[in-house]
User: Fold this.
Amino acid sequence: MAEPTRAVRRERLWKGIRRGAARVDAATPGERDRAVDALRAFAILGVVLGHWLVTALVTDGDGGGLRTASPLRDMPWLAPISWVFQTLAVFFLVGGHVATRGHASARERGTPYTRWLASRLSRLFKPVAAVLTLWTVASVLLLLSGTELDTIHTLLKLALSPLWFLLVFAALTAATPLLRRLHPLWPLAVVLHVDLLRFGLGAPDWLGWVNLAAGWMVPFTVGAAWTRGELERRRAGWILLTGGTAATAALVAWAGYPASMVGVPGAGVSNLNPPTLAAVTFGLAQCGLALLLREPLRRAMRRPLAWAAVALLNLSAMTIFLWHQTALMATTATSLTIGHLPGLHTTPDDLTWVAARLAWLPVFAAVLALCWTTFRIYEQGPRRPKGHASRVIRTHSSHESPKTKAQNHA
Assistant:
């Protein structure tokens, strides 16, 4: 008797999910470019999974403090993992496309620049307050409990590291009126010359931080070119993909750039901190692939279930991004009471660790879901009585004209 009951419950659950997805699909304006939302969702998921796969917090024995480690250090042949999951360039591509399109629409409506910018940045930074508050309290409690300063520094660095991304993204968004017609070759030339000075002429390392703005300005301005209609032909996507791939391969093979597209603890040079020419050319290849995937994604997003999942993820994009490292650290720290668990506290130096880490991913996701339940209100605001489907669409289309409500994202 119990088996049919479970089957009935499953059927009712799926019917409810399908009905909810259908409502989200029906509430979405037909003109909306769903590929934009899909690309943003994949970029966020890539960053989250990438951090969970290559970031380890290990301890050197009983009572030892936590330190960061990466499987890419002892197993450099795993570098292709970073090629798949280092997707920040796609996020900046979409950000540049959405910002320049939204700014153009605001100008047409006569909306002041300050009002437009405030509407774009408010949702970006509201969730930050919750992260800063929690980690301020946590740091004080850790200090009072006698936790080693190195451990606290390690935890804070991981928890707050996503904020550099938001600061750069916010700065580029604020500069949208200046960047909306800038050709991507100009910031690319800046990155090239900075790397020539650093690695070829012995310039100081601090000069590389110029690339923190210039490097991410490249995909942002590619997004602006997308808005201007200059990248609609598939040839543009293929040029970016093949040219970026060839340039990255040449830089890694013959110019001494690291193969990993993320930072590796202890490595002399990081492609990401600050961005190097190899990271930027790799990002151009990713942008080309993203542009080529627009039509397949638009077809895939016609399915209500797929679109509902993407819409809901976009609704919580900043919450997921800001709290995914905290989810990893909370799991690692609380599990120390059990012992040194493989894939969590052990040194990531063999395939056994990789297999164990893969098994931990659902646990990280569950803890992140708990963080999302607790802190999503800072991004989404309080629940409104209008219904969830309309709230999903409204959150992404507020402050836009009727036409651009269908396409732009707050």
Q: What stands out?
A: The radius of gyration is 22 Å. Residues 53-405 form one domain.
